[in-house]
Write a structure and sequence with these properties.
By secondary structure, the chain is mainly alpha-helical. The protein has one domain. Helix content is 75%, strand content 0%. The longest helix has 24 residues. The two termini are 17 Å apart.
């Protein structure tokens, strides 16, 4: 499996786990707590796999950037948390940064 697919699985797993944190009620609810623990386990396992060819800095930049945007989206969707104009602009800049990194950085294998 290509290492960017591993990174994508890691990001999705982390987003699921992080989005479930609120539902754990400080880890007093077993099912959401299990989702968090398993999600983070998958996330770090697949992150480790992708680091065979993707540098840790690039992988972490993509992981954190896309994770921020996706967790914010799911917070809005699941918990009705609001996003203001500055939040949208900031997330747009994060996405732009990931795109620039992917397209132009010499640290990224093309």
């Amino acid at each position: 499996m290509p290492d960017y697919a591993y990174l994508l699985i890691a990001i999705v797993s982390e987003v699921i786990a992080t989005s479930a944190l609120k539902a754990t009620a400080s880890f007093t609810k077993p099912i959401p707590s299990l989702v968090v623990v398993v999600g983070y386990g998958f996330a770090f396992y697949f992150l480790a796999l992708c680091l065979r060819t993707i540098t840790v800095g690039v992988a972490y930049a993509i992981w954190s950037g896309l994770g921020i945007v996706l967790v914010t989206f799911f917070g809005w969707l699941l918990y009705r948390q609001t996003i203001d104009q500055a939040g949208f602009i900031g997330m747009g800049l994060i996405i732009a940064g990931v795109v620039v990194l992917q397209l132009y950085s010499k640290a990224v294998p093309h």
